[in-house]
Amino acid sequence: MKAFVVEKYGDQAGMRAVEAPDPQVGADDVLVKIHAAGVNPLDMKIRDGGLKAILPYRLPLVLGNDLAGTVVRVGSSVDRFAVGDEVYARPDKGRIGTFAELIAVRQDDLAPKPATLTMAEAASLPLVALTAWQALVERARVQPGQKVFIHAGAGGLGSIAVQLAKALGAYVATTASTAKVDLVRGLGADVVIDYRTQDFEKVLDGYDVVLDSLGGDNLAKSLRVLKPGGMAISVAGPPDPDFARELGANPILRLAMAALSFRTRRNARRHGAKYSFLFMKASGDQLRELTPLIDTGRIRPVVDRVFPFEETLQAMEYVEKGRAKAGKVVVAMT
């Protein structure tokens, strides 16, 4: 099969297109012919070796973390899918590889593709939709009437998180550039802060939840808009001890993660709030729960551009250089 692989960590120069062996299909696996794959900042972090400590992949590695496609074979124990089914997924972190013609995915990580979406639209969703679900539903347990602040509402994660928060009945604030204010209002945001002209810390107060995808100073300032008992959940901030335990990290790595997040956790406590780092997990069941929201139009994908599969490296460069105007970038088989 054709695939894009990381041969050495570093940058785009360490990646190339190759002819790779077809995936082996275990008893609980589903072999999927990939029609489209989403491009995520996570792909670049893995390619550059920035996550080697927590994701120790063996090279060469087929990259890619989102897919939509068609089932072409099932393992002997598979009972949820059949050949010909249209599916979408974020494969388990240990079995990524969606920048390829084929992938073997555990059946528990797959879900039927939403009927209302094209393959490209469906491929844009799994990683960001699962991240939003695990942050807002699983971890924060957002309730109707609560106030939720989501950074970068026009981004891949932000555009889905804004819609999910509204579907949960929350009052939603977000940030966006001047050109994207109307877009995020259209997604349901109640308050849109133009980060080019406004400081969100001076506008917002008393929020129950913050979802941070930027880290750094934005995370530090976000703690100050939370009310006592509130929670800041970050996918870009420092990993915390809970994540280290969840990962099964060795004692040295646990200490390192605790040290990295110590200041953030201390500042959160000073505001009577809690800080939580999130690294999303694959889950076909959670995608199934999201599907009715998608098929009824309460959550709609935002796709910036679709590249042909042969231009996967160009698609990654497009994302890495911040050229995407809103939502996700996708590569599609032709």
UniProtKB/TrEMBL annotation:
Pfam family, one: ADH_zinc_N_2
CDD domains referenced in this protein's UniProt entry, alphabetically: MDR_like_2
GO terms for MF: oxidoreductase activity
SMART domains: PKS_ER
Residue span(s) of domain Enoyl reductase (ER): 10-331
Bilayer-crossing regions: none
SUPFAM superfamilies noted in UniProt: GroES-like (SSF50129), NAD(P)-binding Rossmann-fold domains (SSF51735)
Protein name in the entry: NADPH:quinone oxidoreductase
Lineage, uppermost ranks: Bacteria, Bacillati, Actinomycetota, Actinomycetes, Kitasatosporales
